[in-house]
Each structure stands twice: as structure tokens, then as C-alpha cells.
Amino acid sequence: MLYAPFRKLKFYSQGPGQPPGVDLNVTRIENDSAIKIKQSATKIPGGELPLRPGFGVMGKEILLWTNYFKLVSDGDLTLYRYSLEISPDGAGRAPAGRKAKRVVQLLLEEHLQLYRNDVATDFRSTIISRNDIEVEGDGYLVTYRAENEDDPAPNAKQYRVRLQATGVLTVSELVNYLTSSQAGLMFGSKEEIIQALSIVVGHHPKAASTITTVAANRHFDRNSGPHDKMSLGAGLQAIRDFFVSVRAATARILVNVQVKNMAFYNEGPLDGIMREYMQQNGPNKLNLAKFLKKLSIDVTHIVRTNRSGRRIPRIKTIQGLATKDDGRSQAHPPIVTQFGAGAKEVQFYLDDAGEGASGKAKAPGGGKKGKKTSKAGPEAPSQPSQGRYISVYEFFQQSK
Known about the structure:
single chain; alpha+beta; 8 helices
């Protein structure tokens, strides 16, 4: 179903010249295959192909155009396939999703730079290369750093990435198999080559920072023009883009491109998205929490830049709204007046050293005013904390 504004759009243009006709070589192979199947009494492994006794003798021939494009490769193209495994960090947690993708990006930048123009990956478990990679047996140590960071943080996590060769694939063998008109011919590497080519075709959009990939090969350009977007209300928008996959066909390999529409959150300040949602769905905070859960946000109240002045994104994931049970295990748990409380209603403990309950968040100004530190002798025994509770809003107002 297309939304009304999309119905007015022109989805494709033939361009100058005559439209493409039927590939006569493909037609010949299809006809030869149909005749041989009809003449053959042998069963095809996995079941008997359906017979078409009236094939080509009745009806009117018509020409159809579909959203498939021929994939052309060098005649002697050989692909080397490697499995990719990322070991857990020192805390025993293995990266997933966006973080795993970033680890693979760093692997290509720092350890496989020599092969970088010759490899493609799904940024998860497989690398495909045009050349044989000299794999290090102990793997590669990758120190995590965020996008636009010049250097890793002092406490940056480290991951051991291991590559293992899992096969050599010759694309011409698949083309020869697809070109054959022998009905009973089998080719065991067909699915492996199709998977490898799908990774190659999907590598560029997955590597692009402005494109969001959903599942395997559904790609959505976040910088799409107004003709490819439509507001759905309630903080959501529909974006139109493409699903791309590689398919085997008679006498050739095809790339299937399907137009897809998917709902996304609007881009912009989080409070604006929350207001839009509640304007259409009411003020129920339980429903709002479900709407926001797992939403990726870019935290902007603390700005970090690299040496060239570019801002370093701080991407976080919303796990839920504030609850009265938050931080119950802390010595000084935060005070949350109600479910979904805001910055003015949530207070955390700030001790006399300017540190929060976790011992990390320091308020501006340091310790008590006028307090001196002894220059020699043993340290005085620590005194009970004389801190206070402060709202999140007030803390950041003082930090400006």
C-alpha cells in the first residue's frame, strides 16, 4: 500500500534510447532446458521437475520488465572467504550491533589496510576478499575508539578479532552452471557464492555513515530528499529506500532491487519527539516508555571534539524512563518522585568532594571552600560524607 503523496511520484525513467529487449541467449538456453526436461525420463535429485507439455505452442508472447539487473564480473574472479570472530572484552561482554560494526571498521583500518580496497564484509561474521589474506594466527588486537576520535580513551575496551579461511569461491563456475541446459546438473557451491556476492553488493551501503541498514540488505538513506520521506505523525516518519539481493537465474547472475518503505523515528531533539507522541497518543507514561525503549540517541549536553574540531558523537540507547527503584543498591540512591520523572524531579547524591553516588560525577568547584591540605605526615582518617542531594537540572545549570 502506498501513501497518497507517493502515488504521484515517478518511480523510474527509461531514459534515452529504446527499452531493452529479450536476451536471445537466455531464451535459447531456457528453450533447450525445457526440451531436455521433457525428453528426459530421469528424476532430478530432490524431486521431479514439473512438465510443461504445451510450452511455447500457444498464447501470445509478451515482454515484461522487472527490477532485476545483470551482475557482471571478471571471467576469472576468485573470492576468498573468511569467518570473523570477536572475543569478549575484559569484562566478558562481546560487542553486538553498532559496536561490533565499529570493531570491524577498526580492524580494516588498522590491521588490514593493505587489503582494504579488495575486501567486503557484512560487519558481523564474514569477510570476502579478492586476494588471499595473510591471516595472523593469534588474531588482531583492536582497541575501541568511537567515530571521529583521534585516540582511544585511557580505559578503552580491547577486543581480540580472529579470522579463519573458510573457502575459495570461483564465480565463473556458478555462471557455467547457470548457463548449462543439463537438467540434472548439480553445483554444491551455488549458495555459498550467492551469499558471498550478496555481501559484496551490500558492503558499500553498510559502510556508509549516512545509510541505515536493517536486517541483511535493506538500506535507508538518512539524508533522503523530501520525495522519499513522509510524516506519519506521533514522532514517526516513513522513509523509502531499497532492498538488494543477489539471485541465480538462467545463464546469468541477477541483482534484485525492491522498493521498501519503513517507519523511523523523526530526527531532532528528544523532547520534541516525546511531545509529538503524547499529543496523538495521550500522556500515558507507560506507553511513552514502550515507544522510546531501544531508541538510539546522540547525547549533546557534554561536547567532545577531536583535533580537527569535529564533534565526537556520544550514542546511547534508551532503556526506559526513571523509576523509584533506580539505584536501590547504592549507599545513597537517587530520589525519583514518580515514574517517568524529569530532570527537575530526579535528585542524586553529591558529597562534599563534589562526587555523585557512583563516585564519578564531580560538581564544579571541587571540595569545601577554605579547606587546606597538610603537606606532611599521615593522612587524617576519612570523615563521614557531608554531601547533599541535588536535582539533575540544578547540577547541569551550575555546570554551565
